[in-house]
Amino acid sequence: RNFYYITILRDPVSRYLSEWRHVQRGATWKASLHVCDGRSPTTEELPSCYTGDDWSGCSLQEFMDCPYNLANNRQVRMLSDLSLVGCYNLSVMPEEQRNKVLLDSAKENLKRMAFFGLTEFQRKTQYLFEKTFNMNFISPFTQYNSTRASSVEIDEQTQQHIEALNFLDMELYDYAKDLFLQRYQYMRQKEHQEARRKRQEQRKILRAKQAHLRERGENGSSTDYIGNVERW
Questions:
Q1: Residue 208 lies in a domain
Q2: pLDDT interval class at 146 (50, 70, 90)
Q3: Which carries the bigger pLDDT value, residue 56 or residue 208?
Q4: CA angle 27-32-35, nearest 5°?
Q5: At what angle do helices 12-24 and 156-165 cross, to 10 degrees?
Q6: Is 100 part of any domain?
Q7: Is residue 38 situated within a structural domain?
Q8: Is 80 helix (H, G, I), strand (E, B) or coil?
Q9: Which residue ranges does the record annotate as region Disordered (predicted)?
Q10: Which residue range(s) make up the domain with 101?
Q11: Number of domains in the chain
């Protein structure tokens, strides 16, 4: 069997707000083992942001204030090879070096995936998926701009705070958007070139048929009208 890695990225601020609303309703990541290099992180390496069963009802400020919140830069962390930085052990290397290694790893892994899409470009994502895997969906993707995250009104200061908490995801998303649009444009150009090639081939075949018919018409008897019609 052939296995292909694919993923869908989302605008980091919208994704962060969506996760906050999800956690606020009682969702947890307790089922996630966070295994890296064959072991789970210790409580010292990965402290919890809450002491109870879940973090339901937490405010956005509380969500942002937790320094151990795995919602921060989640997309980079999930796409990168954590073993390169000692998994969840933050003492392995300086923070600046760790961030660079994680971001570079996430970019490389994203680029090497068979396919990735962006939630803000649903139709383009569908188009690229269909062209990449030579398949067609039954119905077109629908662009939903009204989400739980979009219903959250935040001021500019909060927006900037969320962007700062997710600065690696912000950079990854800019990279992903640029690469995604490049691939889309390339695939569209390739499609147009193929369509143009087919039209040229069809015109060539048509001209050859017309020339052949003219030649047969000139060589045949002018009185044999019915026979010529049948051949044409």
A1: no
A2: low
A3: 56
A4: 160
A5: 90
A6: yes
A7: yes
A8: coil
A9: 212-232
A10: 6-186
A11: 1
CA-CA distance, 152 to 141, in Å (whole number)?
24
When pLDDT is averaged across residues 159-182 and rounded to a whole number, the result is 98
Rg (the chain; Cα; Å): 28
Measured CA to CA, the distance from residue 49 to residue 53 in angstroms comes to 11
- The pLDDT assigned to 214 comes to 82
**How does pLDDT run across 18-48, given as a tens digit for each residue?**
999 999 999 988 888 899 999 999 999 999 9
DSSP labels for 23-45? HHTT---TT----BTTBPPPTTT
Could you tell me if 85 and 92 are in contact, meaning their C-beta atoms sit under 8 angstroms apart?
A: yes
Within 10 A of 147 (CB to CB), how many other CB atoms are there? 14
8-state DSSP, 202: H
Determine, yes or no, domain membership for 138.
yes
Q: What percent of the chain has pLDDT over 90?
A: 73
> For residues 164 and 101, is the Cβ–Cβ distance under 8 A?
no
pLDDT, position 106? 98
